[in-house]
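chain below, 77 aa
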Amino acid sequence: MFEKVQTILAKQLRLDPAKITPESLIKKDLGADSLDILQLLMRIEDQYGIVIPDQALAKFETVGDVVAYLEENQVKL
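prediction:
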């Protein structure tokens, strides 16, 4: 699961995937802004046919937070 999110983020933010860890802060460490996060989640929603509620979006600070949400909600990436 982490590897899929890592790949999507690396492509979207034009980063080396090796620099993205579960502990990476999406905004501070990876340089993403709110629009980048929204686009990431929209890409996941589109690719996997799911809906991520806005309340969950507000809680995503690290890459691991996104992965944990997807795993808790049994999203199969």
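Residues 2-72 form a domain with the Non-ribosomal Peptide Synthetase Peptidyl Carrier Protein; Chain A fold (CATH 1.10.1200.10). The helical segments are 2-13, 34-48, 54-57, 63-72.
thats it, cya
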